[in-house]
């Protein structure tokens, strides 16, 4: 009898210590505890009826129908197909009440019969880690949802499959965010994590500048933090942390909210394609990803942009599309031009037009990583449904160097850093956008790049201008690189001035061309083939043509250079470019019908008189239609005058004026602005009005940016 008692005691102690060591032996919770624990990762049982009630209206109605159809269609054993199937079956379990047992059984069988055979392997193979781990994230959520419809034996069998498979992947290693996301969700499911996951949180914020721009690359911005289907647990884990209350640092995080606005509103062009920067190819697009709709949990401005982006694209029926978003997307909001001090300038024409122009001056200043290229002050341009420029492509080190990207070097030397000085000044207006990016520590010399997007206006088509300001040594050379999306040939129309390339390197729309006009004549222009991706990873991927314009830095150590990039097709013809001769400046006219734009690059030390205009500045642009002057833009200037329109200042400034509206960036200046009805314009209270008349106003400007209208 004593022996029997000892055996019972030993057995009881064994159960006790086993329960305390759940990492080794999982003891199922009993039936009385089940309703307290499941589901709880992204939904609770008492919310089921509310979810069902929503299904009578769109967009929920279509998602319900899709989920039931997808659950009924079966699946194969491929990771992505499985994640769509099991998430649909779990949603159908909630919404299709009369058949909930059928859908729960499908979740169980998918795990036992298909997830059990997924090839999961740690090591150097992306395909063995990221796709299956992302798919298992959906499986864990689905099992949590159907938990009460399964027996304990069925639950244990499913849990053993998931546990045995995902723990073939270590918690640390390459593609660590997908490890954090799937392991972390499993830990919460099992009750092993009840506190915030700082490693994951810090990893998310490292992929976003304080202003919300991706410092890694555009493609990975969408696939990682943006919630791409190919890596769904990398971003979806934060939704589990938020819903369970374990870590609520995400939905109300200002940095992530800014990222969502940038992602849906700035990182894509007017044709809804990603602007090209960092490790990516022009063949990479954006899917109708499941987590995009949960943008409403972060920020309604971003949600408006997401509604614009996904207009006409219904969400699939899945637990992530139906349950996670707290509401439907709002009415679409067309994005507008934005400047991010730490990230770049992302300009676009105002109208919602697939053919509209989009221009990027990329310049991050705080963090980078393996997928970031040496493209401080790099350009990304789009028009007429196409990306006009490409870069070194992907993947990794062989694609990064500055000469493989749309930026500038000194003597052909690679940039010393992948981060720069950010955007140091700029503005956006109805007809013209302007920004200046500083090189920071990327070059040993000093380089500021001005990007100007001239919107289609006054009957003229839009185009882009870059104005580069370099301070170096007299013996050095400037190498300015442009990579048109062209793999056939570049035509030299005017030697050392005008070059035209068809956009035929993976075009979205055929028949688009760009003309590059060097307002500042280079010493030479080299046209040569450039790799578009790492050949070992993309065998047979075609090269593209690169233009390298080379300039001598003058004896003082300065070199300014202006370049025009003009897109055109059969419906939007190329402008006529004509060089304007002069001793102290470089200039050209850009003629479209009766509209003439005059663009000058000069020394601010000289008063320039040409083509019925007078100015003193490093850069000047003005439009003329007959005798009228619709607008002018001056950079680092003290005066401009044409047909009784202009200004004069006691200190150099940047000014854009269109009629009685405009903007001035000043270091504190006394300025007189001249023009029809200019005496009636209004400034904010920080500007002192010294005197005014019908057609002029004299003001004292503070340091900074001042708007008038």
Give the biggest beta sheet. Answer: 10 strands, antiparallel
Q: Looking at this structure, what is the CATH superfamily of the largest domain?
A: Chondroitin AC/alginate lyase
Give the DSSP E fraction (strand runs of 2 or more residues). 25-35%
What is the domain total for the residues?
2
Which structural category fits the helices and strands?
A: alpha+beta
Rounded mean pLDDT score:
94
The number of strands is: 27
Tally of helical segments: 15
Shape: elongated
CATH topology of the largest domain: Glycosyltransferase
Unreliable parts: 1-36
End-to-end separation in angstroms reads: 100 Å
How much helix is in the residues?
A: 25-40%
User: Compute the gyration radius: what is it?
Assistant: 30 Å
Class of the largest domain in CATH?
Mainly Alpha
CATH architecture of the largest domain: Alpha/alpha barrel
